[in-house]
DNA sequence: GTGTTGTGCTTTATCGATTAAGCACGTAGA
DNA sequence: TCTACGTGCTTAATCGATAAAGCACAACAC
């Protein structure tokens, strides 16, 4: 009868000692047998393996973490600001990617949302100092986030999703927002002959907001005066897209193309345009950015740039493992390609 | 100079011993001071608190978990079947709710997706036996899932989201799918006078699929022969909704109302109806179920029953804490109200 | 027959936090 | 003056897994 220890909730729990006692050896022998280290006879090794299987032994994560000084977990840190809440479908893609990579290595995924109540810096630091994760993936952080720099400086292995030019030493995975945004804009210019363009930006304290704005302006400039571009500041929210369009229509100025910095705003804008009786893409061509799900299901479907969120997350996680293992060698910055997904909102014939 | 230990990745780590040495006491005294237990003079207690703050001490989760026999984490277990993948927006709502409740108690959230490779039962058991979580939330499990029963029987505190009549002893949080589905059906019958109805079911190995089907049939029966109902089996996927409608139109039978068991299928069906030139809601009224985001953004908007996923998850987590703490008292089954969200697809005038 | 090498385990120490038990030293009561 | 008790810490043990070091015993060489 193995001496089962019990947890606080009264649950019996099989430890290595139970396995060892059943075979008649010490827990050290059992550890070596299961781990494949040390000198254990094949016969004993076999017996221990069988006993472990019979008892359903799984190593205690706490015991192992304490001894090995690594937890076998990675954290996804989500700064829960008003703009980027966990509830966005973007995070599902990210989580799917992280889970896939983590499962392949039998690593746990910890979801760490930073609450507003506790200070930002403290929130990051808790994960670091409690050593509950061996590394962290951070996404959608503001460029002004002070906690992020501290996190990277803390020495905890961190991989960022997105672009962080202010943190040149950080390992990151992202896309070329400037080029992608430029391409979206050029689609309206070159394919559809639109010339009176407006860009509704993202929040300009986020690098994606900054870069997509630059890409838009680059395209306008490259047109050599053929096209005109104006800017309206948004914040990635559907409401911001709607308001931007409403203010635009209110002014009565001529607009034949709108480049939204993301799909949520594009959808908001689309609703406002329809409400005002403007035809999309008849009167106005619009493009969005992200393709996290929304742009496919609207009417008309929104032409957009597909940001490969799941793939970014998967690769970020794989890189994180390499950083944790100390087997670097890969470049600090990985940029994934972005595809133009043509739908109806730009004026292209339905696929 | 505190003797900082180092983790495997070379990161300095502040332990209780470092705090204690700075003050000139043992780590036991420091533990008692910070924990408020034992007999420590107010002066020493103050000094220890200051030292801890200065050094940025945060308890090692592994050390604490090992000693206390509880990890300070809860797991969300997601059976990653072909039908319910992590990528669905439903999980964002669930994660948001769990995070909110867990953050309020300073508890970590572990995301545990069961990979297909490892056996189902083993996947559940890993979380249980490694004791990496003090409890688990399980959602969208099939009624036939053998691992679920084993999980509940294992003694690990578990709260289920959804209905599980086969597990009467399990603590669960859910909605009344039968009543809600009946109400959705009756909306088409009573408000819009539809009489030739079809129900596209969910997967019938999931209780939601079973119950929503029953609710539909109840409504038909209660109509006293005034309405006729037919069934088509689906699987909650957009493609299933499309196929169901296509087969329906192919047969050429008269249909003036379709009750889809969820919004994804409703959207698929909506596309098929539009492609066939049928007007929604002119020719056919449709209703969906869930309101996780999709039904709001389609054209027309899909009238649906709002399943309060985030609230369910939050309450499930709070109940899980009570189960973990052993402070029961609440009923084993919590049923939350479901609201009818009227949009355009049923024929109601636009809000 | 004595030293050498190898095998197969056990003993012991460690990771960090926590708590029961123990031990000085002081104060108060008889 | 001697005992009783309270205060404020320290010592030691524990949680579970792991690995270095140690210790019998066997097989082999010279």
Structural overview:
The structure is a homodimer of 351-residue chains. Chain A has 351 residues and is α/β, with parallel strands linked by helices. Chain A folds into 3 domains: 5-59, lambda repressor-like DNA-binding domains (434 Repressor (Amino-terminal Domain), Orthogonal Bundle); 73-176 and 310-338, Response regulator (Rossmann fold); 177-307, Rossmann fold (3-Layer(aba) Sandwich), CATH 3.40.50. Chain A has 13 helices and 14 strands. In chain A, the strands form 4 sheets. A 6-stranded parallel sheet of chain A has the order 4-3-5-6-7-13, sandwiched between helices. In chain A, α9 links the parallel β8 (196-201) and β9. The structure holds a DNA duplex (30 and 30 nucleotides). Chains A, B: Keywords: DNA-binding, Transcription, Transcription regulation. Chains A, B: This is Transcriptional regulator. Chains A, B: InterPro entries: HTH_LacI (IPR000843), Lambda_DNA-bd_dom_sf (IPR010982), Peripla_BP/Lac1_sug-bd_dom (IPR001761), Peripla_BP_I (IPR028082). Chains A, B: Pfam families: LacI, Peripla_BP_1.
